[in-house]
Amino acid sequence: MSIWTQLTGGRSWGVLLALNEHSGFPLYLAFIENETASNYEKAIRSIEERGYMIFGIIIDGKKSLFTLSSLTIRYKCASFT
Questions:
Q1: Tell me: the pLDDT tens digits for 64-76?
Q2: Which of 14, 24, 45, 76 is the most exposed place for a label (fewest CB within 10 A)?
Q3: How many CA atoms lie within 13 A of 13 on its CB side?
Q4: Opening angle at CA 24, ends 32 and 62, nearest 5
Q5: DSSP conformation letters of 8-55
Q6: Predicted TM-score (pTM) of this structure
Q7: 76: phi > 0 → left, psi -120 to 50 → alpha, else beta; which?
Q8: What tens digit of pLDDT does each residue of 39-62 get?
Q9: Which of 22, 69, 26 is nearest to 50 (CA)?
Q10: How far is CA 23 from CA 32, 36, 37, 52, 73, in A?
């Protein structure tokens, strides 16, 4: 399965949401202060610990944050979808 991640919020907070790409079912939700790779790693761990197998992740975040070499990563700007 691939997951779609979206981060939205203000200057000092945000909401990280991960959805199943095909069903739109929410798999992870967290309130965060800064967008960091560790936020995404926590989301992936949480989803995998519940038995989901992740093959790829679709993000619109900063490319420099992602060092998740075991996953296929696609960059897509959510505001143009």
A1: 666 665 666 665 6
A2: 24
A3: 3
A4: 40
A5: EE-SS-EEEEEEETTT--EEEEEEESS--HHHHHHHHHHHHHTT----
A6: 0.74
A7: beta
A8: 888 998 999 999 998 887 777 766
A9: 26
A10: 25, 26, 25, 14, 19
